[in-house]
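R.M. (postdoc): so does anyone remember the format we settled on? I'll just put the structure tokens first.
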């Protein structure tokens, strides 16, 4: 509850530890950087909190991703640590017919988004678009706000590589790591509610 309320009141991000001694639990909550806190962020965090309590009881480390938010808790202190060991990838069914153009424009788009998201002034979030033949290619990139700029850039670089490994030549793809996420689509990625998720990892 402390994480949920703090995330809604602190620009959509909160990292909080509770307990004492060997009973400390570390929790993090973050919303997508372009969301309205009241209408988009807080409802997503509430839903994710309920979901992780139901599906991950007793887990020592658990994380849940929605398109609009993520929450994680662990018995180990992960704050400020770049973590790409856990991931979730989902992609559209349709293939884009010109895979070389898609790959080229993804590189251009996410080189720019990675630089912007790693800038401390951006609070870890960037979105943008580039032309792709007769289409427009849209993208978002986000790191958890506790990461250093160089760790944010490293995490996003690793996430973007998953486009070639897993998603190419799909028309859209989302990659979620514990510390960052990237997404591209052939339609504008808006802040309106999208019922995507949850994706969960627990141990």
């Amino acid at each position: 509850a402390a994480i949920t309320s703090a995330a809604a009141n602190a620009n959509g991000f909160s990292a909080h530890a509770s307990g004492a001694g060997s009973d400390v639990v570390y929790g993090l909550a973050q919303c997508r950087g372009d969301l309205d806190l009241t209408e988009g962020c807080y409802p997503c965090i509430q839903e994710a909190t309920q979901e992780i309590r139901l599906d991950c009881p007793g887990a020592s480390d658990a994380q849940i991703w929605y398109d609009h938010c993520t929450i994680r808790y662990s018995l180990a202190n992960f704050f400020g640590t770049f973590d790409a060991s856990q991931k979730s990838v989902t992609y559209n069914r349709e293939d884009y017919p010109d895979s070389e153009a898609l790959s080229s424009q993804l590189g251009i788009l996410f080189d720019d988004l990675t630089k912007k998201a790693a800038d401390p002034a951006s609070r870890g979030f960037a979105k943008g678009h580039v032309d792709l033949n007769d289409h427009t290619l849209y993208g978002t990139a986000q790191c958890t706000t506790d990461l250093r700029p160089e760790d944010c850039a490293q995490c996003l670089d690793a996430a973007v590589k998953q486009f070639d490994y897993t998603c190419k030549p799909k028309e859209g793809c989302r990659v979620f790591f514990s510390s960052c996420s990237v997404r591209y689509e052939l339609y504008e990625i808006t802040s309106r509610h999208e019922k995507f998720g949850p994706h969960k990892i627990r141990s």
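R.M.: ...and that's the designed sequence above, right after the tokens. Also worth knowing: The chain has two domains: 2-80+195-202, 87-185. The radius of gyration is 17 Å.
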